[in-house]
Design brief:
Two copies of one chain form a homodimer. In chain A, strand 5 and strand 6 form a beta hairpin. By secondary structure, the first copy, chain A, is α+β, with helices and mostly antiparallel strands. Chain A folds into three domains: 93 residues, Uridine Diphospho-n-acetylenolpyruvylglucosamine Reductase, domain 2, CATH 3.30.43.10; 114 residues, Uridine Diphospho-n-acetylenolpyruvylglucosamine Reductase, domain 3 (2-Layer Sandwich); 187 residues, Vanillyl-alcohol Oxidase, Chain A, domain 3. In chain A, strands 14-11-13-12-18-19-16-21 form an eight-stranded antiparallel beta sheet. In chain A, strands 5, 6, 7, 8, 9 and 10 form a six-stranded antiparallel beta sheet that branches. In chain A, helix 13 packs antiparallel against helix 14. Chains A and B meet through strand 10 and helix 11 of A and strand 10 and helix 11 of B. Chains A, B: One of its GO terms (molecular function) is FAD binding. Chains A, B: It comes from Kangsaoukella pontilimi. Chains A, B: This is FAD-binding protein. Chains A, B: InterPro entries: FAD-bd_PCMH (IPR016166), FAD-bd_PCMH-like_sf (IPR036318), FAD-bd_PCMH_sub2 (IPR016169), FAD-linked_Oxase-like_C (IPR016164), Oxid_FAD_bind_N (IPR006094).
């Protein structure tokens, strides 16, 4: 059935509906444009209308009305994702959860809140309440929502200690509304969490989350410099392997990233300076400085609690994760990036190999990550983009060498993930979204179960560019 | 010079001096008797007098007076060590720090206190103040002191997450008094901490400690049972490798330890039941139960927040670390133990090999430990003692197989450690204890630099048995 946009809008007119074209356009975009490939495909995509529910009852009403009118619903938080997670490929309704920002309960080690609360505001509330904070957050902490992080993210600042969002224990409970004739409310814990976490809102809408908390410390943020790149990588790995030193971030930037792209750091580094960005708990600083003292190859050039730089560089985590790419893009619009996983135990060799083969076309930006109890690296490598063919070749070179790529130049769950169908997500979509109206075009397994991944998937119902 | 005991006692008579023979005898003993070897050598050892300083000034006075009178000083907390750490081999003065139990300052992530405070009382104070607790503690938490733990211990409950006391960051600062004509006060941080931590009070007396804290949770304590021993070991390792599940203890007991030695657990297990003791943070219980659900070979038989056992078994950590040996000893006085380190990555193979060769003469008791960022196992194996020769042979079999032994049947730092001289400790002893009066007989490097470790060291000035 064709979508009855006008009918749905009319039925929802008593809610907070956005009608202004420019605002609809803004709410129809995320940070997909980090990828020239996605920019080429998705730049024109726009919703028909935007609605901002104030509570779960309104979410249910929106889903019910849109179901009745066959209107696709793409749900978003702040839209800070880079995989086009929140792009409404078919148009229809964008459901923006910004009003659902209540922090409901805070307990030792956990918090219950609505999905639309900003990570920053959630941390402020839990810190104020009892000196706690989220275990991990994206570098878009200041603007992103917890619901968006869970539905569209994988980990971030804190993952060097706690692993990824998908690891057992890093999400406690999700409350979800289905898109059926009569939407249901379901509560997911344990094995069920994988149905809807990192599912881009394709099979249910999260209306409440329960997340574990860690103690909030006044993290000491630092930059450490080395002349040799592998020294920097080894430094970050060895620090993360210090069981008694509590860290929240260890990021490695190959030269000349710091000099070329980090405007406020640039005066204090040379073009050949490799940089390490760190967050260390204050009670671990004595241990950290001892660790540092054993490594004459590493120089502490900045700490946020004691520095003489002319201007503060701002939070060090806003240099890491995908803020690195953002900073590079602002200076050189031809830069894009890859998401790489260098697995244990060959991670350092693999990093060195890829660098030897591809630098400076591909510059190494590494994030320390825990996976299966081991310290490894995620790469958010900066890529000097030339053509899609060359980008695909660079990806192929990584995969052939044994590095896993989570391709950020694709908008489907499968292509941006492990290139396999997630049966748990697919089965739940069949149950919870029988008409396939939730964030359409993002789950290949739903659209085209026989897809062979030999080329980039193109959603047949993607809006045509004008 | 011979010790002038009477002169020292007279000079210290205004302090809290213990004169009663039975009390002096009690204060001259630690838990060395877990070892039949040490029991044979040290059972008769007794101090000439015991003094209990109330503050640092009195510590200084005692050390100064004993220095002037050439009286050896062996310092103790609760005397819960098992290596004879607190045994006054030459007699002389035992300095008991029980009065020095003030908690001075509590901050986010750290605490400053005197050495004589009980671990239990320290945790109570930091929990009450701000929901914090020590990162790790010995299973003698209820009776042991923080100073004794630092001077004589290596790790314990919490080391599965935070590593060992010697790891950078697990001790922040130690304030130490030397034993010279004019005792000095020195403050140690960083690299200097290794001079006096785990030095048995042989080269300085700790008068103040600064330790890192972790959040205090209402840990869920559990017993999980398996039929197969290696299943239990793999379960504990895999759980500790779950980055998102916060644990404080993972202990593995080979059958029939639980049935034979754990009186309150025995009714709920069979002779062939292998047991896992766990402490899991409450916010991690959903993740834990999911982990458990994936392992049909493991059965949850007890959790302290929901159980139908006739009697509570008490704290689960009081079954682990060296409480396991204590419980076994109470049932079977012929039991003793070994301290083993099964290093990464061959730890599981090594454990299986030693068990195949030696069970049931040696029963596996494993503690999950983090070392260098990896999950490994410490073994506190239960040994059915026959002869010293056989015990030495069992040790040799472990060492030949590649397992490191920290021999708890020796009273010197070197033999109970890595069988090498710790230059940092020795150098500081030369500076801080020129007469060699602090806990004499415990540092071979001081007594006999050319000792070749071919046999058990026997301190020449050890008190003769009557």
């Amino acid at each position: 059935m064709p979508a009855d946009i006008a009918g749905a809008k009319a039925a929802l007119s008593h809610l907070d509906i956005e009608e202004k074209e420019v605002a609809i356009k803004a709410a129809s975009r995320d940070f997909f444009w980090y990828s020239p490939v996605l920019k080429d495909r998705l730049d024109h995509v726009v919703a028909d209308f935007v609605v901002r529910p104030r509570n779960e009852a309104e979410v249910i009403e929106i889903l019910k009305v849109c179901y009745a009118h066959d209107v696709p619903v793409t749900t978003r938080g702040a839209g800070t994702g880079n995989y086009g997670q929140a792009m409404p490929l078919e148009g229809g309704c964008v459901m923006h959860l910004r009003h659902m920002d209540k922090v409901k309960e805070i307990h030792p080690g956990r918090v219950i809140c609505e999905p639309g609360v900003l990570l920053k505001d959630l941390d402020a509330a839990t810190k104020e309440h009892s000196g706690q904070e989220l275990r991990m957050f994206s570098s878009t902490w200041a603007t992103a929502t917890i619901g968006g992080f869970i539905a569209g993210g994988s980990g971030g600042v804190g993952s060097c200690t706690w692993g990824s969002l998908r690891d057992l224990g890093n999400i406690i409970r999700l409350r979800v509304v289905t898109m059926e004739e009569e939407p249901r409310i379901v509560e997911f814990t344990g094995e069920e969490l994988a149905r809807v976490s990192h599912a881009y809102g394709t099979n249910g809408i999260i209306t409440e989350v329960e997340m574990p908390l860690a103690p909030a410390y006044d993290w000491v943020e630092m930059f450490v410099a080395t002349d040799d790149f592998m020294d920097a990588a080894r430094f970050a790995e060895a620090l993360a392997n210090q069981d008694g030193i509590l860290i929240k971030l260890a990021t490695v930037f190959e030269a000349p990233i710091a000099k070329d792209y980090f405007q406020r750091v640039a005066p204090y580094v040379e073009a050949d300076t490799n940089l390490i960005g760190l967050m260390v708990a204050p009670q671990s600083m004595d241990g950290f400085l001892t660790f540092l003292g054993r490594r004459p190859e590493a120089r502490l050039i900045y700490r946020n609690d004691d520095f003489d730089w002319a201007r503060t560089p701002g939070p060090v985590f806003e240099y890491g994760w995908n803020h690195t790419t953002l900073r590079a893009l602002k200076v050189d619009p031809s830069i894009t990036y890859l998401q790489v996983r260098y697995g244990y135990p060959n991670h350092l060799d693999l990093i060195e190999k890829m660098r030897n083969e591809l630098s400076p076309e591909v510059l190494q930006h590494l994030e320390v990550l825990r996976e299966g109890g081991k310290v490894i690296f995620a790469g958010l490598s900066l890529v000097k983009f030339t053509t899609e063919e060359r980008l695909d070749e660079i990806i192929r070179l990584h995969e052939e060498a044994g590095a896993m790529i989570f391709n950020p130049h694709r908008y489907t769950l499968e292509e941006g993930g492990r290139q396999t169908v997630d049966d748990r997500q697919l089965r739940f979509k069949k149950e919870a979204d029988p008409k396939g109206l939730l964030n359409p075009g993002k789950m290949i397994a739903w659209d085209d179960p026989d897809w062979d991944y030999s080329r980039m998937y193109a959603y047949p119902k993607l809006q045509a560019a004008e």
